[in-house]
Amino acid sequence: MAKTIVITGSSDGIGAAAARQLHRKGHQVVIVGRSAEKTNAVASELGLDCFVADFARLDDVRGLAAELKAAYPRIDVLANNAGGVFGDRAKTVDGFEKTFQVNHLAPFLLTRLLMDRLVAAGASVIQTSSGTARFGGKAVLDDLEHDRDFTPQLAYGTTKLYNILFTKELHRRYHDQGVSAAAFHPGLVATSFGTGSQSWWRHLYRLGSGLMSAPEKGAAQLVWLAQGHPGQDWQSGTYYEKGKPAKKHNPQALDAALATELWNRSEALLDREAH
After folding, report:
1. For residue 243, how many other CB atoms are within 10 A of its CB?
2. Of 151, 173, 139, residue with least CA distance to 265
3. Which member of 156, 162, 205, 239 is catalytic?
4. Other beta carbons less than 10 A from residue 8's beta carbon
5. With left for phi above 0 and alpha for psi between -120 and 50, is residue 20 left, alpha or beta?
6. Which of 37, 106, 122, 218 is the most exposed place for a label (fewest CB within 10 A)?
């Protein structure tokens, strides 16, 4: 059965590769990207609907949610794939550290705003995480944005850890209502990701791009999760690497109380920002 699949960050990289593959398989794919030029180009190539939203602006996320709800009575899959690694610490117009907002708070908000549609469809919510969550992430509840010890690497690894914790708590809260959730590590993929950063990521991608997978390969798990049937093909609440539940974890990724508290504090930050 064809699904309606919303993929954020699908104007480039693994998001665009996943969109192409899922479109070829007959699904209704919705392209979401930050760059109007890139987003429109991918959508025009495939003949698909598209929406432009900058996750560094929470009003863009709210507008995107409203547009999606107006356009699609049913959403079967929300793939929270948009994200980035940035350079020096910078605040968004909303007052949050940029990496924290783009990689965690914005997709958290989008999921929250679409929840009625997701519950009604018995949808899957997929997070593009990273293996850096295991060795580069550290959740500190009274300093979620790492204001005290910020580095680009720590900020990125921590937000990828948040993606996993969000997946586990989303499963706990909403699986009984029919929503399934999974996170995955796409592997090292040769894309433009990280090239705009002044951190070590830029040099890693420049030096190691020849050893990295093509975006099409990196997109394979996203495609598998989006097409698959939770409970049969994959298990809700699980973090996947190479198509299987990850064997190694950051110990914090398994902390159920931490996942709950991250959710509560994220909600509180958004409620405070909205007022």
Report:
1. 12
2. 139
3. 156
4. 26
5. alpha
6. 37
Rounded average pLDDT per 10-residue block, the chain, 275 residues? 96 97 98 98 98 98 98 98 93 97 98 98 97 93 97 96 98 98 84 51 50 77 97 98 94 97 98 80
* Catalytic residue list contains 205: no
Q: What gap in Å lies between CA 45 and CA 218, rounded to an integer? A: 21
**Under 8 Å between Cβ of 183 and 127:** yes
CA dist list (Å): 29 to 10, 45, 83, 105, 209: 10, 13, 19, 23, 28
DSSP-derived secondary structure letter, 33: E
Token couple for 162: 């948040």
Give the sign of the dihedral formed by CA 152, CA 136, CA 108, CA 10.
positive
Q: What is the pTM of this model?
A: 0.92
Report which of 79, 51, 88, 74 is spatially closest to residue 2, judged by C-alpha positions: 74
Is the CATH code 3.40.1110.10 the one for domain 4-274?
A: no
Strand partners, 52: 33
97 three-class SS: strand
